[in-house]
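Protocol step 4 of 6: structure prediction from sequence.
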Amino acid sequence: MLYSTQVQEERHISPFVSNPTLGIKDVFLSVVIPAFNEEVRLPSTLEHVLHYFDAQAYTVEVIVVNDGSSDATAQVIQAFQTKCPYLRLVNMPKNQGKGACLQAGFKAAKGRYALMYDADRAVPIDTLEDWLYAESPDALEHIIIGSRSVEEDGVVRRFNPFRHLVSLTFQKLSQWLIPDIEDTQCGFKLFPAQAYRLFADLQLEKGFAADLEYLMMAETHGFYVEERGVSWTNMAGSKVNVWVDSWKMLLAMFRIRYRTFKGCYN
């Protein structure tokens, strides 16, 4: 289904502005990165992301949401802020989960579009270039999600065999909830402002099931969701506990289905 509401304001790519935190009204893209105890992986991710956006011609803000980390995650972000004026830090008062971080990041975001991006850098950030420029940015009013299942030319994937098997099993289960999507959990999703602001207001899931909830809300509100194949590399240091989080996700699927039936996302 196509999203029915049309944007009334004129759309354009803004010239690069160094500091979107100083009252800038027109941020083109917000990048939201949840981070929990990521002092080891985050430096290379931020180098990768900021190097890419330094070369872009549009306004951007990168929002890292620190999920009550007990290590030096906040200090890593603050160190990068001294040399990157468009990097923002949101501190959660305690550890609440990936979904809670995304919700806080989306509520803080100012962009016309928002990209959710995992701190492990499993998907190359320059994937975004094809997404934004495959068509006119003025026409991009739907949701695009990365997929580790959809095949496309040039896609390279390096999986951990066991985790990949668990992931495939969950993908099959999740199609009971959202049958048209092959991969609900890839941490690379692009939302227009109408979508991410609405989802942040309605969101109830605080953990990894937030991805599922976003896609269910997209269906409920008539957003068109396009699934595109992405390159993906399994990175060491995952915060996902395969056994515990798999059961949590399964229970979340029933909660989301029940809420949908009760009209909680309307």
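Step 5 (inspection) to follow. Residues 36 and 239 are 8 Å apart (CA to CA).
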